[in-house]
Amino acid sequence: MLSQRIAVTYSLMAWGFEDKYRSSYENTYKEFEMTMTLITGLDIEVVDTAQSDKALKKIERQFKRVKPAKGDTFVPSLVDRSTEKLLDAVDAATKLYAGL
To answer: What is the pTM of this model?
Structure first.
């Protein structure tokens, strides 16, 4: 999952390996962002549109918390918690779309 890759590369940057993992982190972040843009732009009828909209909004909310860090300020515990919640939200949304 992209959210787990975000968490791992972020932690590696926080531990002092920013030069080695910054581009991987940013690429993964952009890939997740592009996927979300694609999914939210699809015109798919789901069984419960309100529920799917709620699930996608939850994903977007959690995703905002894992924006690329600037400078030396890293908060790995926040990103770890947020990516766990992000993974749960993605799993819940996936189940809504799995039957289509």
So the answer is: 0.76
- CA atoms within 13 Å, Cβ hemisphere of 94: 8
Q: What is the pLDDT of residue 21?
A: 93
12, 80 contact by CB (below 8 A): no
> How many whole angstroms separate alpha carbon 62 and alpha carbon 60?
6
Q: Quick one: which of 32, 39, 34 has its CA closest to 3?
A: 32
Looking at residue 47, the DSSP 8-state letter turns out to be: S
CA distance 59 to 63: 6
Alpha-carbon distance of 36 to 4, in angstroms, equals 16
In the chain, the number of structural domains is 1
Structural domain of 73: 2-98
DSSP 73-100: ---HHHHHHHHHHHHHHHHHHHHHHHT-
